[in-house]
Amino acid sequence: MGLGHNEPMETLAWMQAKLPEFLKDLEAFVRRESPSKDLKGLMEAAAFLEEAFGPLQGRLSRKDTPLGPILLLKREGEGAPVLVLCHYDTVHPRGSFPEPFRVERDRAVGPGVYDMKGGIVALLYALRHAEATGRKLPPLEILFTPDEEIGSQESRPLIEAAARKARAVLVLEPPTSEGDLKVARKGVGLYRLKALGKAAHQGVEPEKGVNAILELAHQIVRVAALEDRAKGTTLGPNVVAGGTVSNVVAEEAWVEIDLRAWTLEEVKRVEEGLKNLTPILPGARLELSGGLNRPPMEPTAESLALFEKARAIGEALGLSLRPGRVGGGSDGNFTAALGVPTLDGLGLFGGDAHQKTEYVVVSEIPRRVALLAELLYAL
After folding, report:
1. What residue ranges define each of the domains in the chain, with the CATH number in brackets?
2. Are the C-beta atoms of 171 and 85 separated by less than 8 Å?
């Protein structure tokens, strides 16, 4: 059913009127600094979420985990639910910003304001709009997770279980730096390649040793050769260590490898290549560990149809949205890999994620919140 052009504009006007209130809530949330693994900070941020979302329609439940509380807000309705994914942990250690929240001209600056506390406050106002106007929302399951920035170890099983019964997944990570939504993300693989040699005295009998560092040096060149930049596949041998002291032939050495690829096919090709590495030096051995941390988020006809819905709403709001592709992973990678239509990047417009200048553009907040609200109404 097509929307009248007046509805998105009415929603936008409502959001614009609420902007001062929105900024107060955003400030309160951002000031409760919640770096991953900082349980005190995560508890304080979870308490904000309970205060803010608790009074809304639906049932808010909580599961305490070793990495912080996972909150679930469920709103009943007809048919399969729409799953909304939000993480409230940030990458910034407490005190990283001279002032945890400040507004400079048209920028609100603070830890996690863009990635992704702003997206969570946007959702709060989208739901408040629905309750204030009586507009109909689909059944919703909203997950607030504390561990996305460190790989979603605790949250992943809950995310995947919820996704399996969802009709669509919306991820409230921020849009691209150009303001586009995200339909594709690279998969992330983390591997460790260890070379094992044999120790010997470097001065007395070096010939009895097998140098693991030298073996690893040969292998790193082979690892790098598995890259395919034309296909967007990159391999970073970015951490290396080995040996004990300079007068002993190195018995062990290892390298940590970061793999990024757009498709599962490419991941499999690289993994095959890594598994097929054979030692060069007589007497050396190789051990490979690790694997795929987040599968690639590959666009499907269904996820592109979901994007198309958002694009049409964006157009009615004066936003020109394109289907963006980004190299970083999110929790959307998990849901897309299960074949559930997934649309990411529905948070606030801004920039400098993971930097000490992280910001959102204040004047663009109402349009992004209106986009999210109208997309929920359209599902």
Report:
1. 6-186+296-378 (3.40.630.10), 187-294 (3.30.70.360)
2. yes
